[in-house]
């Protein structure tokens, strides 16, 4: 059985993320969305909120309803080992994403042998980034066509509570 992990901070999960998860789910027998804690990022949503939103988002789509969502408590390679993953699946919006992701892919393979599969973003999602979604929401702009409904609600609530 082939298992893949789709990791990210998912703060919040976007429609672009879900597209990558959906496509990965066609390629692998089991897909696990790994919600990572990234100390370098100032998260709007807590890890528990991000897991809850991601679970709601994958459950709402029949093409991803069987996808698991878990927290990555430490190193991604340790999480991959724990779940038995052969591969990490990452979406790429453009060349800058590749430049950032390639060193991580090489290090993950160096540390554990896990391979990274890069999937290019669909054109309609190539401009969508979680950081932009949060910025738009902080300024009262529309985000409903960028994120699943559970994410839109969670982001608006978090922004309102931090205002």
Would you identify the regions where 5 or more consecutive residues have pLDDT less than 50?
none
Number of strands: 5
Helix content percent band: 40-55%
| Major sheet: arrangement of strands | 3-2-1-4-5
**Into which percentage range does the β-strand content fall?**
15-25%
How much is the radius of gyration in Å? 15 Å
Task: Tell me what the structure shows.
- The protein is 46% helix and 18% strand.
- The protein has six helices and five strands.
- Strands 3-2-1-4-5 form a five-stranded parallel beta sheet, sandwiched between helices.
- Helix 2 (47-59) links the parallel strand 2 (30-36) and strand 3.
- It is globular.
List its salient traits.
6 helices, about 160 residues, alpha/beta
Please describe the topology of this protein.
Elements: E1 3-8, H1 15-27, E2 30-36, H2 47-59, E3 68-72, H3 76-83, E4 87-92, H4 95-112, E5 115-120, H5 130-138, H6 149-162
Parallel strand pairs: 1-2, 1-4, 2-3, 4-5
Task: Produce a short descriptive summary.
46% of the residues lie in helices and 18% in strands. The protein has 163 residues and is an alpha/beta fold. A five-stranded parallel β-sheet has the order 3-2-1-4-5, sandwiched between helices.
